[in-house]
Amino acid sequence: MKVLGILGAHKKDGFTGQMLATMLNAVPKGNETELLYLADYDIKPHTAAPNPTLKALIAKLAESDVWILAAPTYWGSVSGDMKHFLDCLRPKLVYQKKNGDTIPGPFKNKHYLSLTTCYISALDNYFSGATDGTFRVLDKVMSAAGVIKVGEVVLPGTFGMKTIPAKKIALCEKWGQRLVTKDRRDDNTLKRYIQLFLMIAVMALITMALQGAFRQVLPLQNFFVNWGSFVLIFFVLLAGILHFVTVMKHRRR
Ligand SMILES: Cc1cc2nc3c(=O)[nH]c(=O)nc-3n(C[C@H](O)[C@H](O)[C@H](O)COP(=O)(O)O)c2cc1C
Questions:
Q1: Which of 4, 191, 206, 230 gives 64 a disulfide partner, CB atoms 3.0 to 4.6 angstroms apart?
Q2: Residue 185, class by beta-carbon neighbours within 10 Å (0-12 exposed, 13-18 middle, 19+ buried)?
Q3: Which residue from 35, 128, 137, 158 has its CB within 8 A of the most atoms of ligand 1, so it is best to mutate?
Q4: Mind listing the pLDDT tens digit for each residue in 178-222?
């Protein structure tokens, strides 16, 4: 297998670059790794004109099984270098149908891990979600391209940091080892159904418990009051959990 680390950052040896290098170094022997520092290339959009640089980069993407997309968080989003690279690649990431819809292109079913770093502390990031914007952009592009996510890693608190904390180094090493060892099929469908079932079971239980708690004030023997209050409580819980899953799901610490 080949793991390609793609670094879109102002500094090659900054914290993001160091995290990426640690991950690549941990990839078990017998597998190939390569680090691509985007600033080394003069990347121009894919057009009808010859574009040997982009062509060479596309070949590297094609020959790799797993991509590590590493970009620091700049202005609450993905770094410009990484965004520019993904923008230029668009016609190679997705095919466009006649009606303008896009479908995954030739990289469908490859795998990626996203990695970012930021100045603000883990606690600040936990509450403000400063790095969510970075992950969201990467996820949006990769999901359009049909590339399957294997995980995400964040290093917050780089302001004043001298060396990367040991536990983050260990995390990078763990990911480096895991990237090539697991069966990388997207077999999450069953897992998602099980999660959905458990979510509904727990929410129904909480809803019924809350209804029970309001038994004194709610005439629950009336079918419509019983049904209406169940729907209302269930909806509030569902909205809350969906908000959590869609807004708060990214790694922040
Ligand atoms: C242009 C620019 C914008 C930045 N915006 C943010 C930001 O919005 N939030 C944040 O926490 N850090 C921000 N930072 C700090 C970087 O994310 C942080 O220093 C990161 O660890 C740099 O990675 P590096 O060491 O790999 O260069 C910004 C840095 C630059 C240069």
A1: 4
A2: exposed
A3: 158
A4: 999 865 556 667 888 898 899 899 999 999 999 999 988 989 999
| Topology (CATH) of 2-185 | Rossmann fold (3.40.50)
The domain limits of the chain are 2-185, 189-247
125 Cα nearest atom in ligand 1: 11
pLDDT tens per residue across span 34-87: 999 999 999 999 888 999 999 999 999 999 999 999 999 999 999 999 999 999
Would the CB of 39 count as within 6 Å of ligand 1? Answer: no
Atom of ligand 1 nearest to the CA of 10: 27
Return the pLDDT at 183: 59
- pLDDT band for position 241 (cuts 50, 70, 90): confident
The response to whether residue 17 sits with its C-beta less than 6 Å from ligand 1 reads yes
- CB of 182 within 6 A of ligand 1: the answer is no
If you write DSSP's letter for every residue of 64-113 in order, what string do you get?
-SEEEEE--EETTEE-HHHHHHHHHHHHHHEEE-TTS-EEE-TTTT-EEE
Find, among 16, 146, 144, 172, the residue nearest to 87 by Cα. Answer: 144
Which pLDDT does position 57 carry in this prediction? 98
